[in-house]
Each structure stands twice: as C-alpha cells, then as structure tokens.
Design a protein that fits this description.
Layout: E1 4-10, E2 13-21, E3 26-28, E4 31-32, H1 33-36, H2 40-52, E5 59-66, H3 70-88, H4 93-98
Parallel strand pairs: 3-5
Antiparallel strand pairs: 1-2, 2-5, 3-4
Length: 128
C-alpha cells in the first residue's frame, strides 16, 4: 500500500500529512480531527481539499502538526492534504488552485522592534 507524504505550512505551524487509500478517516496528532479541531470552521478547513476534489471517503489521512495556534494548524493541514491529492492525481490541481488551496499563505507576524511597545506601536509619549 502506497503512502503519499507531503507537508503544509501556515504562520509558524507545520503539518506532515500521510495519505493512503482507505475509508475517509482523518487522524491529527493521534486523535480524530473533530476532537483535535472542535470548532466547525476548523473542521471545514481540514475537509475542504477533499470536498473540492470529491474524494472525501476515498483516503485515510494521518497528520502530525506542530507550532502555531489551532487556526494556523488547520490551514497547514489543508495545504498538506491539497498537495498530497495533487501528487496522487494531477487532475485535481486546477480545481484546488481556483479555490486558492495550492498556495502557501506567506503572511507572518512582524517582529517587535527595540524601543517600541510592539512591532509598530510606540510607547506612549508624555510631554510633561
């Protein structure tokens, strides 16, 4: 049985995705994805690539994800699954690209600068 291995990233989250033929089971860090991502929006992100390519119950997916928060992690998983599906069948690529699922979101948190409160916010100025 062939296993396809890809990775997805978003902000500081990194997801390693292992996709193989199966019954549609999705395991994230040893738990069912609905337990790991309890919010319906995050569950939608995880399922989105499979739904668009119409293979929701054809593959078993195992994911190891680390870093960031749960939103970044769910979107990293989405990218990883999309890349794995395209690796298995390149015909899925146009539909996934049209939905914006093949592009890594490059936005990252801007670093805090010295002499300032945050990345752009200054310390409060007091004239007296």
């Amino acid at each position: 049985m062939e296993v396809t291995n890809t990775s997805g990233r978003r902000k500081t989250a990194v997801a390693r995705v292992y996709l193989q033929k199966g019954t549609g089971e999705i395991i994230v860090n040893g738990k069912d994805y609905k337990v790991y991502f309890p919010v319906p929006t995050l569950q939608y992100y995880v399922e989105q690539s499979l739904t668009i390519s119409k293979v929701r119950n054809d593959y078993d997916i195992t994911v190891n994800v680390a870093g960031g928060g749960i939103t970044g992690q769910s979107q990293a998983v989405r990218l990883g699954i999309a890349k794995a599906l395209v690796e298995i069948n390149p015909e899925y690529k146009p539909a996934l690209r049209a939905e914006g699922l093949m592009t890594r979101d490059p936005r990252m948190v801007e670093r805090k600068k010295f002499g300032q409160k945050k990345a752009r916010a200054r310390f409060q100025f007091s004239k007296r």
